[in-house]
Fold these 4 entries.
Entry 1:
Amino acid sequence: MSANGRPMSGAVVNGVDFERWAVVLCKPDAVARGLTNRILEMISDTGVTVSDRMDVVAQPWQPHVVYRDMLADTGHRNLRNLPAYIDAAYANQTVTVALAHGGLGIHAKLRQLIGHTDPTRAVPGTIRGDLGDDSLAVANAENRLIRNLVHTSDDPSSARREYGTWWGPGRRLLESDFDTCSVILCKPDAVERGLVDAVLERIAAAGVTVRLRVDVTVQPWQAHVHYWDLLVDADYFPDRDIPVCLDDAYAGKKVTVALAYGEPGIHARLRQLIGHFDPTRAAAGTIRGDYGNDSLEAALAEGRLVHNLVHTSDDPDATRRDFGTWFGAGRRLLLTSPSGVPLQPTHADR
């Protein structure tokens, strides 16, 4: 901390070394032209790891912070109109941001890769040179910002500032959130039997913080993504038509999802708490053991999936996938780790 109590502007914050991390901003024109995937692929092709991609509807303050040096430059010839140009280009427009991880010198490497500010002056092989379709001359004539697709952090200080701008100040990298976060899925049978509150209360009573409860009407793709392993290994279940079983059990049905926060190891703890997938084999004191009323034997006889009330993510990778499936990949800002947040359900049918 500085003498006035404000954070220092060093390159390392909360364990994030911005000497080796850069922020990639795919601008509104890149999103509008459907070039975001291509841009991130061109960055990845240089050996840089790209992660934590997130779509954001830009609030006016965010591009103001990104362009702070230009806005504060008293010698900038378009200073009078620049705020209006920035607002017109960004406010309430969708951008895509991502993190790029590489070695020392990543910022200069990426700046070289994206190319000159004016795409007409960017050399072939650069992102702006290969994909750009605008020019500074045209932009000046039309009194607007130039459309040049992408921005990357200039240096470690810029990376830190831009990380706080797009992901939230003081945030840890999202990978670490999945180590201490799990998705809870209260299945259709839990909803139909009125057991959602009881299930979430049991999880919260285990010392886990439960928040961001959301009611969802299941689309078929969500069940397919969630149970991808059953679909891929369907030949192991010759007694059931797995695609049909999934659609019958989930499509158009109500489920409730929530996020659970705890210490590393939360995934194993929750899997132990919910109990064996066959409720008749789940121990007393587990959720399925105490509340389950179905059996694998009955499910097999009826050619369906077993009704076992609840799922929690198996591990951090499963949490990432489950979060995107049930909350939406574009809502990662929900993942900010709480501190002592009580169970406060919120409902939003999607």
Entry 2:
Amino acid sequence: MAADAGAPGTVRPGGRTAQVRAAVLRAAGDLLSESGFAGLDLADVARRADVGRTTVYRRWGTPTGLVADLLRDMAEQSLPRTETGSLRGDLRENALLVQRTLSDPRQGPLFRAVIAAAACDRRTSAALHRFYATRIAEWAPCVVAAVARGEAPEGTDPAEVIRAVSAPLYYRMLASGDPVDEAAAVRAAEAAAAAARAGAYADPTGEGQDRP
């Protein structure tokens, strides 16, 4: 996903500037994991990153600006999709990737903090939406390929299938408190694949195929 032109902290040249950005985003992620959004202080981020406080304030301005850039970087750095040659296999790989992220000792708390912040801050919410739009667009071609192979009906909405894989895992993390384990990931993938094959996500007009 391309960075917004002129947005704080989004210029990505090489050398010292890139190193500073990487250090600041790493420190921000650590603080979010440890203390949540409420504990994200730009001065603390600068200290942890060993970067001048003025640099952090000038480039990112506010904690929400920093979180927006962190989400942008996370989307760019996320692993590419895995193509196994079958819808069931591809969705399973997607589910296991989500599961590993949400159950990771650092990434799990980081995502919870960002989601909590997005619930009450529009800028963070917009950044989170962009993050997930990027990830859905990355995996949607797996569903498009499955339709072409005849594994799912014409008009199947790729984005809806991908959302159906991860939704149960986020529910476990944020609402029910049930384990986000591999078994849950496999069940989510199997359910989404079965529903897709049965036409649950098919749009009879065929328009869903073109949505990211």
Entry 3:
Amino acid sequence: MTNTAPEPTAFAFDAPYIDAHPHFWDLTRNPYPWLQGETVPNFRYGDYSALRRNYLPADYARDTAGLAPVKTVHIEAEWARGDPVDETAWVDALAQEHGRPTAIVGHAQLDRGDVDAVLAGHAAYGRMRGIRNKPATSARREDARRGQAGSMDDERWRRGYSQLARHGMSFDLQAPWWNLDQAADLVRDFPATQLILNHTGLPADRSPSGLAGWRRAMEKLAREPNVAVKVSGLGLPGRPWTGADNVPVIRDTISIFGADRCMFASNYPVDSLVASYATILAGFVEAISIYTPSQQHALLHDNAARIYRLAD
């Protein structure tokens, strides 16, 4: 499949909102192996060659023209893993120059021997809010199993996770829904750490059985109070982002977690492979139109401000 840039959606919106999941990268200066020669196998949107270009605040300003968020949270962009603090230093300098992003979620490999030093290095930056790490997971639902090395069950990985609270850091989790039973145990064992589930739990299988399994997994995770969800990453390979596909999933997510634990997130520029920024924001706004004005404001702004500690 070859992705082409989706046509922009005509959408006017001037309410304040926060984008809790854009990425910035500069391929001319910094190392991102997945964008500079390596290929991610089975990338969920198929061909991602269109992402092999710089994406900086000026590019984001172009994509959000007329819809600009009041604050943004940069999520680590898979900078080469040698020294992940280098990415935080670069993004912090970017923010000083351009006013974006407001806050940073960096990377740490939680089962690495130097995790304490890496977390301390990140913590030296005032914009730092948390860590994203992609633990070992199962690629397919039918292969899901517990106890893999590097997974959320791994005691060495959990020792790294236990250090987040000491630094006042939250944790961004990207994992398929069939591994969220591990996440439920994790947050129960570490109640002082806020976990933020990325990309709506990755409900890629929209068959009735796939959605039923996703709902069960999300409901189990939602029983734990220290979990929030970013409504993002809902594109499907080979087809444009539509409200018909995604509004029901967004509403299910909010119904499961509540209007005080979900937030808007664009996943730009990655989701530019499936939709314009306006399309994604318009779909979210349509989905939350059934809620009260105060709940809509929370979903668009206040929840992300609280969870990522984005003081005015």
Entry 4:
Amino acid sequence: MTAEVEETGARPLGSPIRGALRLALYLAWTLLLVPVQALAVALKLPLRYRLPLLYHGVCARILGFEVVVRGERAQPGPVLFVSNHSSYLDITVLGSVIPGSFVAKSEVAGWPFFGALAKLQQTVFVERKARSGVEKQRDELGARLDAGDNLILFPEGTSSDGNRTLPFKTALFAVAARRIGGTPLTVQPVSIAPTRLDGVPMGIAFRPCYAWYGDMDLAPHLWTVFTLGRMTVEVEFHPPVTIEGFSSRKALADHCQRAVAQGVERAVSGKHTPPQGH
């Protein structure tokens, strides 16, 4: 895989044998933990918060992801983490380093298999296009934060090609005005970017091996991921903030978007020191 190959737009070759083995391991691991998590959720056991972290961590290893973490995750919670979004694979990567639940568009709840997994992780489903329901959705998010849950939000509202960060939508930042135990809610920007494949910089040509956007079909994309070699994905935690440092929720959203965009740009341009893994 050379720079010359990358410039032609060619795709790296995967191994069907590797893909079949990873798929079998992924399904076995998932089917093993689903009833445990379902029981933990039904009985409201503390395990329901810890098990997803373990699940995603093992899934990341099965998929061959080398997750490199930069910066420090804000803790203790509750924290509203806001991140860029380029793929369904972001769930596995962020879920392996952040104990929390995701905020997802309502359509995800109806997806076969993955919708059920999202519900087991206590995902908060929102109608992103329903302006009239913003207050209700804000209250739902607020109730989860009041209960001490960390939430992970993708404010772009859709997935990108992984090479840039789209503008953040501001509606759900209204929850940042909430006070938890008398103190303003902590908001932490997080950047995520796939950067290397088998140690070689991915570049624009290979980044779609991770990024899932536009009219891409899910099954062929996921199979490609299973067949490829080791992929490095960088996660950068930026300094946490609260809304008290900003004049409005839009100003807070703009600040978070800039921080995340700068982190993505550093990662995809290779301005960070070469990753050593995590």
